[in-house]
Amino acid sequence: MRRLFSIFVFIELALSLILLLKSEFLIGEHPNPVEFIVSKLYGSLDLIVAIMGYLIFKHWKFESLFRKLFLAYTTSHILRAMVFWSGLAASVASFQYLFYFHLGCAAVLLVAYLSDKTPWDDQRQSAS
Length: 128
Known about the structure:
Elements: H1 2-26, H2 33-58, H3 65-86, H4 92-114, H5 119-127
């Protein structure tokens, strides 16, 4: 489970980098092929992160606020994937907002990963 969570955080950081590059270099007045490919790549990675998030969520058997927030965060990835696949996110402001959102989420998830008490450790202790 820890390995899946660390992959999850790594992909989250990669998504932040894609958003930064897209907002800084690839947004123009007319869509170009590179922008189209990056949007589809971002949407695909967003969907992969959502699937991984649901797998992590499934292994947390106890109820907690962190678990519920994690489910809401994972669900938001599906919504963002739909926005990118449809081509609706075309303004620089929306990409900068998504970049900072992803960077903040990745930081929170990384802190949770590095902390001494993670949800699956808590679950393992309560089972014994």
